């Protein structure tokens, strides 16, 4: 579907409607799995009440599609400030006079009905926001991104399990523990991906020295060796800021882990279970990922190294949309879309392998990189500075690849995520790299 002929407006309209519906079905699952008391509760000061996300989804859809694209008047101007993410930090949102759950649902539903009418009549061209259905695609991605945020809230929520999904596919060990990416230039970012966001643009050539990259993300089993070797107690492995944070926050293991009877357990969406050694490690901060890499005698990859390993086809010297090619992600390629409620074991998805042989670059866990979040050469803020530009700077680190919680519409080889280096309630893991030596 994502590779459909987007130049045909009828096909593009159907694609947009399908993506908007998929997002709304997921929103319905995530908000319908708990009662109203749960929807208005704040499960962590890091997160909004679920009912805030619900009305915010509707409000952003109204703002961008009905008002900016459609030229309509605001439906409820008095609620706009409540759902402006920049006006109210998450911690204070529960104290706002938010729409109660039934009104939030009715509002989002009403907006959606009007948006589908607008879509049916739209030429989907003739204005920058309309070309290739960009604003519609942005809104479908926005809702799916909030669905991932709501899934994080579910993970932080205490109480019995309310979500369910089948297990991911099993895996055999990959053929080699690391892959060699030879020196040379590649094209990073995109000018052609129609729904790419401003920070993924423009396409530009980047020349890299040769490096080795882990074939798969670092596993829980490998991470447990770091813990057992005293990794959390040894300042040698940590940056000064990382050590300061580790000490102040009392970190001794990934978030949601506990130690019982000589065994590591984890809490996952209401289930307490032994930590599976073959799964990618999840819920680690950038500081922890960086310390592990140094302990292992390695380093985190740069963002450019991650993207070259994921997209560059050395035979054709071109960058693909995804590691496996230009076709959309299927269930055989990657663990995406909350199809499973956990990462797949390392080595899974051989059909999703990149030309250099790395696996699971897309899906499973967001991967921390060593890079700060900045604009590419020639960056232009679009459609508003608050999307990306206000976050540029050394305080945010880039994550790549998407997790099991990311929807295909919001995932591609160029997609960039960013967060503070202390964050670990997100679905974050990592893989490591090292410089290649002469003769490798
Ligand atoms: Fe938002």
TrEMBL record:
Keyword Protease attributed:
no
- Please list the reactions this protein catalyses: gamma-L-glutamyl-L-cysteine + hercynine + O2 = gamma-L-glutamyl-hercynylcysteine S-oxide + H2O
Q: List, alphabetically, the InterPro entries matched.
A: CTDL_fold, DinB-like, DinB/YfiT-like, EgtB, EgtB_Actinobacteria, Sulfatase_Mod_Factor_Kinase, SUMF_dom, SUMF_sf
Q: Which SUPFAM superfamilies match?
A: C-type lectin-like, DinB/YfiT-like putative metalloenzymes
Q: Which of the seven top EC classes does this enzyme belong to?
A: oxidoreductase
Q: Which residues form the Sulfatase-modifying factor enzyme-like domain?
A: 176-434
Question: Is Oxidoreductase tagged as a keyword?
Answer: yes
Which molecular function term from Gene Ontology is one that the record holds? Answer: iron ion binding
Region span, Disordered = 317-338
Cofactor(s) required, per the database record: Fe(2+)
- Which ranges carry the DinB-like domain? 20-150
EC number from the UniProt entry: 1.14.99.50
Instruction: State the family named in the UniProt similarity comment for this chain.
Output: Belongs to the EgtB family.
Name-wise, this protein is Hercynine oxygenase
């Amino acid at each position: 579907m994502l590779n459909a002929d987007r130049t045909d407006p009828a096909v593009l309209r159907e694609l947009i409607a399908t993506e908007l519906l998929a997002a709304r079905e997921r929103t319905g699952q995530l908000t319908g799995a708990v009662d109203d008391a749960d929807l208005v509760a704040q499960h962590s000061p890091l997160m909004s009440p679920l009912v805030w996300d619900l009305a915010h989804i509707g409000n952003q859809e109204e703002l961008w599609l009905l008002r900016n694209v459609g030229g309509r008047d605001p439906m409820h101007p008095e609620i706009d400030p409540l759902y402006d993410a920049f006006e109210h930090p998450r911690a204070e949102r529960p104290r706002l006079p938010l729409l109660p759950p039934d009104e939030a649902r009715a509002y989002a539903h009403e907006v959606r009905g009007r948006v589908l009418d607008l879509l049916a009549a739209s030429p989907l061209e003739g204005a920058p926001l309309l070309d290739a259905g960009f604003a519609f695609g942005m809104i479908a991605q926005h809702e799916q991104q909030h669905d991932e945020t709501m899934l994080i809230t579910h993970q932080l929520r205490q109480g019995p399990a309310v979500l369910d999904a089948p297990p991911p596919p099993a895996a055999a060990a990959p053929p080699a523990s690391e892959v060699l990416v030879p020196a040379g230039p590649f094209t990073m970012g995109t000018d052609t991906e129609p729904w790419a966001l401003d920070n993924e643009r423009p396409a530009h050539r980047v020349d890299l020295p040769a490096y080795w990259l882990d074939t798969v993300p670092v596993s829980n089993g490998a991470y447990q060796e770091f813990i057992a070797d005293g990794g959390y107690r040894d300042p040698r492995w940590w940056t000064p800021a990382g050590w300061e944070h580790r000490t102040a926050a009392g970190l001794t293991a990934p978030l949601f882990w506990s130690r019982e009877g000589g065994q590591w357990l984890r809490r996952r969406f209401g289930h307490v279970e032994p930590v599976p050694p073959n799964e990618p490690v999840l819920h680690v901060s950038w500081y922890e990922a960086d310390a592990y890499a140094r302990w292992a005698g390695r380093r985190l990859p740069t963002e450019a190294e991650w993207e070259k390993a994921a997209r560059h086809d050395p035979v054709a010297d071109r960058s693909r949309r995804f590691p496996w090619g230009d076709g959309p992600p299927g269930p055989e390629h990657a663990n995406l879309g909350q199809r499973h409620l956990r990462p797949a074991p390392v080595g899974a998805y051989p059909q999703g392998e990149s030309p250099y042989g790395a696996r699971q670059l897309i899906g499973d866990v967001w991967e921390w990189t060593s890079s700060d979040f900045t604009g590419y050469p020639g960056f232009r803020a679009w459609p508003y500075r608050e999307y990306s530009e206000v976050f540029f700077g050394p305080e945010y680190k880039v994550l790549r690849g998407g997790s099991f919680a990311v929807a295909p519409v919001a995932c591609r080889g160029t997609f960039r995520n960013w967060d503070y280096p202390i964050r670990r309630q997100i679905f974050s893991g990592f893989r490591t790299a090292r410089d290649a030596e002469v003769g490798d």
